[in-house]
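re: ur question from yesterday

yeah so i grabbed the chain u mentioned. its 355 aa long if i counted rite. heres the sequnce exactly as i have it in my notes:
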Amino acid sequence: MKRIILTGGGTAGHVTPNIALLPRLKELGYDIHYIGSYNGIEKELIEQFGIPYHGISSGKLRRYFSVQNFTDPFRVLKGLGEAKRLIKILKPDVIFSKGGFVSVPVVIAGKGRHVPVIIHESDMTPGLANKLALPSATKVCCNFPETLSHLPEGKAVLTGSPIRQELLSGDKYKALEFLHFTSDKPVILVIGGSLGSVAVNEAVRGILPELLKSFQVVHLCGKGKVDDSLKNLEGYAQFEYIKEELKDLFALTDIVISRAGANAICELLALHKPNLLIPLPASQSRGDQILNARSFERQGYSMVLEEEALNQEVLLTAIRKLYENRETYIEAMKRSHQQNSIDTIIDLIESVVNK
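ran it thru and got these structure tokens back, copy pasting raw so excuse formatting
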């Protein structure tokens, strides 16, 4: 039996693409193991699938001063030792890494044991963890054409991001019943990321009186960010987050307002959902969401509104323009070459295993 180790963690974005690969890997008869941190979000997400989970010590390499910068290198070294032992015991045929700092010791240990390693970079430019992992990689998957120039020649493959297939099988009638919406107005889905976005939430809520004249709005506003004063507003539904019903909400949705995390926008691409991206500003990140959003804008998949320019009038105008031109964006997304990400990545995995 072929054996694969999946790794990646720290955020859900470093785990969900691995989860998207599970059904196909099982179909092909792979014995699947997962290496993550002792108690990271990846542990909770993976264990529900019955996949053997192995925790290792994990640190973080920061670009800013922190007392933990003095202790985390020892955690990373411990994690490297633990990864080496696990790989020696498990004897995998291949390792697939979705990134995050916990993956670095696994990738390095894999190369040390002569195991082929495939890594996936979600953002336009590689993050620090994947930069450290690149020399140990056999192949590097990426989401954006522009990323190819940032990766070692001969290793890089444009694959897109694996998308959970259940998102493609939603039922809009179930969503209408769940939301108590009518079928006579189009639906906007607002996604601010798992923690929500104060700026996006405030801007959307500020234009609700005007917006609800023409649209219905589903607002995923983030943990602790529900506005109780709007709970009974007709045509407006707000949730901290949605899990099981998300596929149905997508099926009902006509246009999406979203942050520009790589996995989130790749899901919108796969679902052919016209979208207005409001990327996390450079002051709050390394600027990767801005680069992601601008790439999708250049390819005709998205409209982009940077947070610094966000106000109620600008947002309302952008929403109306997006809806009026939605078919143009849908057609551009249908022409994308990144529709078969799972097949492309599975073929890569198979090619290094059977080499």
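noticed a couple things. The first helix runs from residue 16 to 27. also The domain at 166-334 is CATH 3.40.50.2000 (Rossmann fold).
anyway ttyl
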